[in-house]
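Working notes for the structural subgroup meeting. M.R. asked for a predicted model of this chain before we commit to crystallization trials. I am recording the input and output together here so anyone reviewing the notebook later can reproduce the run.

Input as submitted:
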Amino acid sequence: MEFLAILMTGLLAGLSPVGLIVEEVGGKQLTQRLQEAETFEVRVDNLPAHQLLSGDIDKVSIASRGIEILPGVRLDTLEIETDPISFDLQQLRQGNVSPAALRSPVRAGIRAIITEADINDTLRSPQVTDRLQPLINRLLTPPRSPNPPQFKLVSATIDFVGDNRFQFNGKIAQVNPENGETEISELGIGFTMRLISGSQFRLTQASGTINGQQLPPEMLNGFAEGVSQRFNLKRFQQQGLTARFLELNVDEDQLETAMFMQFAAQRPQ
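Returned structure, recorded in C-alpha cell form:
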C-alpha cells in the first residue's frame, strides 16, 4: 500500500513549470525506498498532459531488474503496468500521500521472477529462518502430542527441480532430553506447486525424509494443506486488495508469476 503513496509523491514532485518530469523524479523516489535495484525505470503515459494537472494518469509502467523489495529479499525481475489512475491532487499537495487520496481503485498487471539463487540467499538470513521455525515444528510434531519436541532450523536451501516441483533441504537441531546433547538431523521435503484457482495455489505430491527415513504421508499432506490455505489471496480482500494469479511456473532455475491486482482505499463507515 505504501508503494502507491510513494508513487504518487513522485508524480506530484514532477509537477513543475519547467515541465512534467514525472518519469525521472518518480524513479528516484521509488528507488530510494525500495532498498536497491540494478535497473529501475518508470514511465508515465498521459495524453493530453493537462490530465495530470487534474489528478488523472493514463498508465504507469515500471520495469526493474535485481530489485530488493525488502531487506534480503531480491527479485530478479519486477514489471508493473497499471490501468488509468485517478487521485485527489489537493490531498497530495496537503501532504496526504495515503491510499485515501485515490479517487478510484488502482488496477495493475504484475510480472515477477525470483531465481533459485536469490531464494537461497534469502534463506541465509536469520530473520527468515526464524519465520520458518514454527512451520518446521508444526511439521515434525505429532498431533495432540503432550510433550512436543522443539527443533531449531540451522540452515536451509531450496532446489528447483522443474515442472513446478521444488525440494526443501534443511539441517535441524534438537536437544536430546536423555543426555542433553544437541543432535543435528537432515530434513528433506519435496512438493509440486499447482494453481487451483486465481486466488490460491496448492502444494501436492508431498514427499519427505528425516535422516533418510520416510516421513508419514498424512503428516506431509496435513502440512501441505495448512501452508496452501495460508497463501490464499482472498485473505487480503478485507484490506481493499484483490489479487489473482494468472500464471505460476517453476522451472530448474526460477519461479515466474503473473498476477492481476486491484487496490481500493478503505473508506470510513
